[in-house]
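Changelog-linked ticket: 2-phosphoglycolic acid example.
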Amino acid sequence: MRRKLAAGNWKMNGTPEMLAELSTLTGGENGPQILICPPAPLLTRAADVTLGSPVEIGGQDCHANPKGAHTGDIAASMLKDAGASAVIVGHSERRTDHAETDAQVRAKAEAAYAAGLTAIICIGESEEERLGPDCLDIIAAQLDGSTPDTATADNTVIAYEPIWAIGTGRVPTMEQIIETHDMIRTKLTARFGDAGANMRVLYGGSVKPTNAAEIFEAENVDGALVGGASLKAADFQPIIDALAAS
Ligand code: PGA
């Protein structure tokens, strides 16, 4: 049984005052795992606010090296020390803004494992790629290149996020979501066996309270990575509830 996961990515948004939103989130009895990834300077405060609550805290990125002369970067162990249990790696905004490659994302995931963090590895196609004939092959190549050989069902979560659906209010059709998640599951199982069958695969890109229930109906959608709608409990809680009911 794969435990469902509702993950929130605050990106470069959030104030100390907004952390109060976290203290009200609940998964209910045997509900989904809940994770919020605030900006790094808010991590320790977020960890304080969520102490004893079902909400876990994660980072949005880490460096591939454990320490050193990398001004502005954050080591995975530092996220762990701040109270994180997971870190997002290879988000499309990192791939675009910082030209991160699959190989770098894979190295970051390995750094996350070494620090005892779960890596949430993001993959997903551009709009042009979605319209072309090789879309699934492109996503499969990203998955392969970004996921370390040492990935397990415990240390890795895959997030499929079509770039054109992020922050746009547009989502793929259910057929596209099902086809892509089924392909990812097939690839993971072929490469990792049972671990691949048990690895969680999230959908991300304009998940809202209004569309969450339908998306969560897909067999190989194990939860969501949510941007905008994770900033307020009034939006994120209904998404968690839809996941719990799925
Ligand atoms: P969105 O972002 O929910 O605001 O579309 C998703 C993401 O980038 O993880």
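Closing comment: Example verified and attached. The mean pLDDT is 97. The two ends are 13 Å apart (CA to CA).
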